[in-house]
Amino acid sequence: MTKKKEPHELKKRGRKEDIYDNGDLRSHLAGIKHINQLSDKAQRVLRSIVKDRSVQNNSDRAYDTKDILFLVTHMGNVSLQGVKQLIDSDDRFTQTDYSQSSVKEYKRVIVEVAKGLSELQTSGEAVRADERDGSEYYTGAEAFELRRLLDKGATKEEFEALVKKYSNRN
After folding, report:
1. CA angle 19-44-24, nearest 5°?
2. Cα torsion at 20, 21, 25, 31 (round to 10°)?
3. pLDDT in tens, 95-131
4. Strands (E) located in the chain
């Protein structure tokens, strides 16, 4: 006679979960905390996908675009367990315990937004507002260099030469 298996010995049933690799986009969006730090096209992609998902779910409460941006920029591998842990541990999500279906929907929205922004990036469009291709903002490295030069006590001529150097790149 065979022994009855303990719950931890049983194999999982159903399909294996697809884990979306968001590492490239996450590293590209490092430092992005606000929606206005994205380019106009990236903002439109983010908002339209979030709105479409809410309409498809016939949901009265739409997903907050700020929360979705937070999740996209903080998750390297998007999995159900990772989404659940991040949602439960962060203060911006008010509900105490999210159901499995809510976590699945968050994962769907995150993956769709990540794919949309990745497609935008691979097509050559700017995703960040501070990219040279995207807007007239300094990149993070350029802004750091300018601040460092100011803090160091550089002369006006040195500072203006650096600004002119960065302006000529665009």
Report:
1. 35
2. 100
3. 767 788 888 988 999 999 999 999 988 888 888 877 6
4. 20-21, 77-78
The pTM is what? 0.68
The Cα 21–Cα 75 span in angstroms is 9
Neighbours of 127 (CB within 10 A): 23
CA triplet 35, 38, 39: central angle to 5 degrees? 135
3-state secondary structure 18-32: CCEECHHHHHHCCCC
Nearest by Cα to 38 from 120, 148, 161: 120
Amino acid identity, position 81: Q
CA distances to 83, 143, 162 from 79, rounded to whole Å, are: 6, 35, 44
Question: E strands within 93-161?
Answer: none
d(CA 67, CA 58): 19
- Domain coordinates of the chain in residue numbers? 19-129, 138-170
